[in-house]
Write a structure and sequence with these properties.
By secondary structure, the protein is of the alpha/beta class. It has 2 domains: about 1-155, Rossmann fold (3-Layer(aba) Sandwich); about 175-325, Reverse transcriptase/Diguanylate cyclase domain (Alpha-Beta Plaits, 2-Layer Sandwich). It is about 45% helix and about 20% strand. It is built from 10 helices and 12 strands. The strands form 2 sheets. It has a 7-stranded mixed sheet, with helices on both faces. β11 (about 285-295), α10 and β12 form a beta-alpha-beta unit. It is elongated and about 90 Å long.
Length: about 325
């Protein structure tokens, strides 16, 4: 039988939300699992007074049944119970939700078992007979650690999203600028070469005009996947803006960069795109400009400018070509 109370009286039904959806402005829901009614009542009163929303059940089986249809930010379970014990509750809860917070309860003489439970993923343990301050501190510390972990994970996600172009899922313009500066500084420090490809889709405005912008967006996403396959794992590809892309080739001299750029150009030419035959030249193709540090430029700004000048020359030569800045007549 489960006890789900508010204030001091019993109440039926549960508020439902995912543990991973916990926010600071939502009530923290705690599930108590213990076969002793006096323990359940004691913990319920202590944690309710702390402002938590508490549900109590009398067996591991009932806890698992409840977890299959409801979620809790924290589970506090006794280890020794008839039937399904606390270790089994812990394992099952972790299988259902790997980030589930679980605190186990044990007698002073069984702390070794509590330590074993922590190896299985328990966040902490509480010893019986209870110490009121210990309960409050352990629960608060567990919730705070979990809250900090969640914020760190969210921060990493947002940090990653800030680097990514939303349409193509390549690096974005801002991150490219930061990355190229860092790579040039590294190349300068270690005496390495570095190459930059500037890429533009040929007649993409015409493709958009003929097929519509949604089709154009799909073509950009498809092209991004194709170009990602053409470069090496150590290279960085980014959307420069609109239908322009850049590829940073660390520790890459001119001859190797030409091979990579030509492989990329040819792969795009050979790839089928939806409605591409309606394009002006019959196929979706790209023009590529190439410049290399330190031979063509000494700074980030100049390297971008030189690669762009080479790209402009490729466009002038009827497109679908790779041009190298050092080989362009200026």
């Amino acid at each position: 039988m489960s006890d789900n109370k508010k204030n001091k009286g019993p109440a039926a039904g549960n508020l439902v939300h995912k543990a991973n959806d916990f926010r600071d402005d939502k009530p923290v829901r705690i599930l108590i699992v213990d076969d002793e009614e006096i323990v359940r009542s004691f913990l319920f009163d202590v944690l309710s007074d702390e402002g938590y929303e508490v549900t109590a059940v009398s067996s591991g089986e009932e806890a698992v049944k409840l977890l299959k249809k409801d979620t809790f930010y924290l589970i506090i379970t006794d280890i020794k119970m008839p039937g399904m014990n606390g270790m089994q509750v812990l394992r099952t809860a972790k299988e259902m939700e790997p980030n589930q917070n679980v605190i186990v309860m044990t007698g002073y003489a069984s702390t070794e078992t509590a330590v074993e439970s922590m190896k299985l993923g328990a966040a902490d343990y509480i010893t019986k007979p209870f110490n009121l301050d210990q309960i409050r501190i352990v629960v608060a510390k567990t919730l705070e650690r979990s809250r900090l972990r969640r914020r760190a994970e969210e921060g990493e996600i947002y940090k990653q999203l800030s680097r990514i172009d939303g349409l193509t899922e390549l690096f974005n313009y801002a991150f490219f600028q930061q990355l190229l500066k860092t790579e040039i500084e590294r190349a300068q420090r270690y005496g390495h070469e570095l190459s930059l490809l500037m890429i533009d889709i040929d007649d993409f405005k015409g493709y958009n005009d003929r097929n519509g912008h949604p089709a154009g967006d799909e073509a950009l996403k498809h092209l991004s996947r194709v170009m990602s396959r053409a470069v090496r794992g150590c290279d960085f590809i980014a959307r420069y803006g609109g239908d322009e892309f850049v590829v940073v080739l660390p520790e890459t001299d001119l001859s190797e960069a030409k091979l990579i750029g030509e492989r990329l150009r040819l792969l795009v030419e050979q790839t089928e795109f939806e409605n591409e035959l309606a394009n002006k030249q019959g196929l979706i193709t790209v023009s590529v400009g190439l410049a290399t540090y330190p031979h063509d430029a000494q700074t980030k700004e100049d390297l971008i400018k030189r690669a762009d000048e080479a790209l402009y020359k490729a466009k002038a030569l009827n497109r679908n070509k790779l041009c190298v800045f050092s080989e362009v007549d200026n």
